[in-house]
Write a structure and sequence with these properties.
- The longest helix has 22 residues, at 5-26.
- The two termini are 35 Å apart.
- The protein is built from 7 helices and 7 strands.
- The chain has 196 residues and is of the alpha/beta class.
- A 7-stranded mixed β-sheet has the order 4-3-5-2-6-1-7.
- Helix 1 runs antiparallel to helix 2.
Length: 196
Amino acid sequence: SVDFPAADRLAEAKRLAKAAYVLARGRGSSAVPARLQRAAQHTTAMARVAVVGERKRGKSTLVNALVEHAGLLPRDVDVATNTYIEVLSPRRLGLPPVPQARVHLQSGAVVEADVSELGRWASEQSNPGNARRVAYVQVLLPHPLLDAGLVLLDTPGLGGLLGAHGAMTLSALEQSNALVLVLSAAAPATTDELEF
């Protein structure tokens, strides 16, 4: 596990800001609470980072490494991911710090699932052509980076931004603040990677 003393300092700063907010409101001030609310939005916002690249470049492996959970996301089949997987902290949603998965279907329904069942819903091998009509899968995992507001989006391989995988990747990108383009060190960048 990684030690983040900065997270402790941030928690203390938030506690002090809340106390200052209550004190200022109690004394009739409106300017100070408004400034504190604007500052709080910057410290509580989630940073959504999409991890993109051609298939079999190591996108899921990178996400697994970042959250220190080697077997979390499917990665051992030819086309591992056929929908995007959102990895975030359950604490950010006000839920208990227990690993869990939520499968969001295109119909709008949400299916609760065990984290060990991710491949059943999000891999091409177990859900060919996205026959189960999964919109995306949400993985709730306690981890200091995720608790601090990082949200990782593991996307299907690019393979050209056409078809279902391209649509899933573009959907994830529309909801992201940043992206990480994963390339292979063993091969030159592909035309799709360069055009992306």
